[in-house]
Prior knowledge:
Two copies of one chain form a homodimer. By secondary structure, the first copy, chain A, is mainly α. The first copy, chain A, has helices at residues 3-20, 30-41, 47-58, 63-85, 101-104, 107-126, 132-146, 151-160, 168-194, 198-225, 228-231, 237-240, 246-250, 252-269, 278-288, and strands spanning 94-95, 98-99. The first copy, chain A, has a single domain (3-288), classed as Farnesyl Diphosphate Synthase (Orthogonal Bundle). Chain A is globular.
Amino acid sequence: MSNEIKVRSYVEQINAALKKYIDFSDDESDKVAQAMLYSLEIGGKRVRPMLVLEFCRICGGNVEAALPFACAIEMIHTYSLIHDDLPCMDDDDYRRGKPSCHKQFDYATALLAGDGLLTLAFSVMAQASLPAETVVKAIKLLSDSAGYLGMIGGQTMDLQHEGMSVGIEKLQKTDALKTGKLIYAACALGCVAAGADEEKLKAAEIYADNIGLAFQIVDDLLDITSTSEELGKPIGSDAENNKSTYPALLGLDESRKLVNELTDNAIKAVSLFGDDGNFLANYARKLSVRTK
Amino acid sequence: MSNEIKVRSYVEQINAALKKYIDFSDDESDKVAQAMLYSLEIGGKRVRPMLVLEFCRICGGNVEAALPFACAIEMIHTYSLIHDDLPCMDDDDYRRGKPSCHKQFDYATALLAGDGLLTLAFSVMAQASLPAETVVKAIKLLSDSAGYLGMIGGQTMDLQHEGMSVGIEKLQKTDALKTGKLIYAACALGCVAAGADEEKLKAAEIYADNIGLAFQIVDDLLDITSTSEELGKPIGSDAENNKSTYPALLGLDESRKLVNELTDNAIKAVSLFGDDGNFLANYARKLSVRTK
């Protein structure tokens, strides 16, 4: 199967599964369910759930059984975007070309929709048809990665840097927490679902760390070089907000070079899986040259 | 042991355990950890974790082993208060006589501290020294109770009622979700930790449903009859906000009578446990006559 077709098939599988987890009641509490579904369906590339499923597959696990983990991590990613977009945080009116949750609904509903997705993620994990020990291990991994020593810690650091410029070291540390931890969790969750050994987990970690940082640098590059139409959000906002970025600190050429190096590292890490690692190798390459 | 002394001993045990779960790093992400701990330490009655521990004890379980469940539910309760106090929700500057989280820190940090506590709760659950099947069952129970079909659903309904008066049925349904579900989860988690049978779980549910509603009615009564100093927050805010309350709908005397009836029901439910149910019976009585 070509990478392209496989990505599409994964995305369809994930989208169908995500929908299944949101029930509608017939009373006034429905509004938050609608907001949760709205933000889940704004779309996105489904990078994290796809990594869960593919790592599970190449570690010899049951991909179907890992779907709840895949959905859970996408719910957590989506909640973080809803809360990030709120006026008290980044104050973004658009997300992927559509009104962000608090613009489509209202501030309080968006807050609760984020809380609802974060909470639901763990209920979904607990429903996985996998050994209970595996589920507990996965829940610990995801909550620690998403928590105050992980993603939320990175968001907190990001807040302190508002309107000031920081050095490359601090920027990398922030990103390693803010975006890196959840990408790591995605790769590791796939391995855990499959009961993979330490060697495979280590390869997943190296792959994740490298594509995670590359992903962030490409984001920064696109904020400069892309068009607003292509990105589905305003461009040039980093420079406007005086935000430290990789291109600002390293220059465009060096940043692009670093993306290539990191991508090569990621590809090397999954060579452990032989031909089975091809999808992830191609996927890393694809993410590094994405235009949105 | 008298009820009074036992409550104090439980509270000490819970406070010591809660603290243990917050680590401090030495970087800028520390701020969110400080905010999380600040809100956890504002105090409160620790009703929910106490219910976890006591139900575990009277169902013959290991109280020590249930402590992570107790801490998790208090973290979720605390996060819900932090988010409820935010300007986009109830906009309360004080909580238990102290500045609420967003006043002590800032809006964004309070948002993240709430997210952090909610996320941490599940990591803490996953660390319990109990059979993995028990932990998974408990996580499912807590996330469903706290989620969009539980507590968050109740908060959503509450939002729709802002500035309008609703009937007693709608008010009860809202409260059954908003405060009732988490009190139910507390009682049930204790039973689950102990591996209790269906009969005990059912008794816990009846106890929870009755003290849950009684608790809410007493809250409404105190908003009218207490002093601001005693409550640690402004009084009369319900009437000012045109909020439907039990005393407004039923009158003071009827409301007080209903509290007594509900408390009697709760006491009857735990008579299943014989003398072992005495603490919970006395506790239900104590909550019904509390002055803050």
